[in-house]
Amino acid sequence: MCRNITTLRGLDPPATAEEVQAAARQFVRKVSGLQHPSAATAAAVERAVRDVAGATAVLLADLPPRRQPPPTLPPLRRPEVRARLGVPSST
């Protein structure tokens, strides 16, 4: 498993579409070996990210609740990551 993909199931509040898409993008980057898609590969990568994000959202919706929260927060919930990316605080 890619160490950069964090568990989204059991978050409180539930995983956002942005978090699901970030995890999908990381997965697609890992399996494709493409960190920075070229013009020739961008459409295929974006389609794969949409497909994986959609499947992930369905999976999370279909699974029963977790008894314990995940061991780590997704990157987009970490203040230091949001600051580095220039994303406003979600609080």
Task: Tell me about this structure.
This protein has one domain (17-84). The protein has helices spanning 17-32, 42-62, 79-85. α1 crosses α2 (42-62). It has 91 residues and is mostly helical.
Question: What's the short version?
Answer:
The protein is built from three helices and no strands. The protein has one domain. The protein is an all-alpha fold and 91 residues long.
List the helices and strands and how they pair.
Blueprint: H1 17-32, H2 42-62, H3 79-85
Q: Biggest sheet, open or closed, and with what strands and sense?
A: none
Number of extended strands: 0
What is the CA–CA distance across the termini? 30 Å
Strand content: under 5%
Task: Classify the secondary structure makeup into a structural class.
Answer: mainly alpha
Rounded mean pLDDT score: 89
Element pattern in H and E: HHH
Number of domains: 1
- Radius of gyration in whole Å, from Cα? 14 Å
Output the keywords:
0% strand, mainly alpha, 48% helix, 91 residues
